[in-house]
Amino acid sequence: NAGVTQTPKFRVLKTGQSMTLLCAQDMNHEYMYWYRQDPGMGLRLIHYSVGEGTTAKGEVPDGYNVSRLKKQNFLLGLESAAPSQTSVYFCASSYSRTAAPMGYTFGSGTRLTVV
Amino acid sequence: AQKITQTQPGMFVQEKEAVTLDCTYDTSDPSYGLFWYKQPSSGEMIFLIYQGSYDQQNATEGRYSLNFQKARKSANLVISASQLGDSAMYFCAITDNNDMRFGAGTRLTVKP
């Protein structure tokens, strides 16, 4: 009963360091998403993918890159971390763009702190 | 542009009473979907209920119901018979021609 798995769950980075967040789903979903959650702002879309080998920018893409080399995996990279990227990151997947009627399936989140 | 507005940062309700969480949205697409998610203190996002823009009836899922007023662009979540375990953040979200966009959330606290 895995669904969407995110690794790592917690990470502390120094300013300027790089890291990759991994998202894996076992539901054969075409669509995958990366969101960040900040207090008082809900979830904001960083990047998304509509299928293997495709990526697109969301609402807040600056400072992040993504790749989807395999259908089940969606990677989020921070090349040079900044304190403004301190946040909780959620990966999600869905079988359709509209996500009707079951919504997106979310991972458990990654809490990232940049010092 | 802000697509989803949740005007109540925090709400309190007495155990066993009903509570309504407000959500208004903005879209020019005739076809869209509205969702509510619950986020307990443990942090996971739990899907609660869905309403399609063409659905004739308000959606219901157990103790959750959605008061959908299309002309007013309103999709309020009603939780009946509140339980202590309902204490959480609640997010309203929309999918239209774009991807899912979320409101800022409402923190619900259920008092014993």
Which structural class should the secondary elements of chain B be placed in?
A: mainly beta
What is the multimeric organization of the chains shown? heterodimer
Tally of DSSP helical segments of chain B: 0
Which radius of gyration of chain B do the C-alpha atoms yield? 13 Å
β-strand amount of chain A: over 45%
What is Rg of chain A?
13 Å
> What is the helix fraction of residues of chain B, given as a range?
under 10%
Ends distance of chain A = 35 Å
List keywords for this structure.
heterodimer, A: mainly beta, 7-stranded mixed β-sheet, B: 112 residues, mainly beta, 6-stranded mixed β-sheet
Description:
The complex is a heterodimer of chains A (115) and B (112). Chain A is an all-beta fold and 115 residues long. Chain A is built from no helices and eleven strands. In chain A, strands 2, 4, 5, 6, 9, 10 and 11 form a seven-stranded mixed sheet that branches. In chain A, strands 1-3-8-7 form a four-stranded antiparallel sheet, with no helix packed on it. The mean pLDDT of chain A is 94. Chain B is mainly β. Chain B contains no helices and twelve strands. Chain B has strands at residues 4-5, 10-14, 19-21, 24-25, 33-39, 46-52, 60-61, 64-69, 74-79, 88-95, 101-102, 106-111. In chain B, strands 2, 5, 6, 10, 11 and 12 form a six-stranded mixed sheet that branches. Chain B has a four-stranded antiparallel sheet with strand order 3-9-8-7, with no helix packed on it. In chain B, a hairpin with a 5-residue loop joins β10 (88-95) and β11 (101-102). Chain B starts with a strand and ends with a strand. The model of chain B has no long low-confidence stretch (mean pLDDT 94). Chain A binds chain B through residues 33, 35, 40-45, 48, 58-59, 88, 90, 92, 97-106, 108-109, and chain B through 4, 9, 31, 33, 35, 37, 43-45, 47, 50, 52, 91, 93, 95, 99-105.
